[in-house]
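Task 17 of the worksheet. Students: predict the tertiary structure of the chain below and write it out as structure tokens. Keep your answer in the requested format; marks are given for formatting as well as content.
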Amino acid sequence: MTQTRNPCAAYSEARLAAVYDPLNPPGEDHRFYLELAGTLPLAVLDIGCGTGRLAVDLARRGHRVTGADPSPGMLDIARRRTGGEQVAWVEAGAAGLALTQRFDLIVMMGHAFQVLLVDADVRAALANLRRHLAPGGRLAFETRNPLVREWEDWIPERSRETIEVPGEGPVEASFDILQAEGELVTFQTRFRFPDGEVVAVPHTLRFMSKARLAQLLAEAGLTDVTWYGYWDRSPFAATAPEIIVIAG
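Model answer:
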């Protein structure tokens, strides 16, 4: 029998939070944000930091890092990660963050921007993150290019894989589309654990156009924007898989 979890609470469960890192190993996006921070020490905010892998790697490079995420389960893993003591951890999302510190660089990795489903949420997040930027600071994040329609591959036949999870063993994971309407795509991630438990976690993501994103960035006062289409810093194009934003 498949058990369904509320996506807001799912990764607060230790068993599901433990799956996150094996399912999402470091890739070109991870390297991109490390290189963006550079070698000179910066005050960096990793918003939507998840299990803290990027935040800890930034701290190891000498940056003064704050990691923020609304999931206590994710933050628990982040705090226990080797090197986690070098990072200040905060339980908060992009719109609710309220810190006195200002940051030279704010990053939002892992397509976390796409959980902001309506314009009001995007406006609140962008305005609040801009308030947390130091003079000359930059906000960097990515969202999937809707023109590529990546979600069409999120079906069990194309997405099923088995990952090795410490403390659990082999866990089978797959995606399945539930609904795609307008900018919003709802899908579920399905996990089958070695003891036979099957858990499905539904998610809804927004696939926003570059034009609409540019409008919302401008409304937030983020008008100096560099656009990339992939992690090699190639220019954005209609066929690019990503819409990568560096704004100030």
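Marker's comment: Residues 50 and 74 are 5 Å apart (CA to CA). The chain is about 25% helix and 35% strand.
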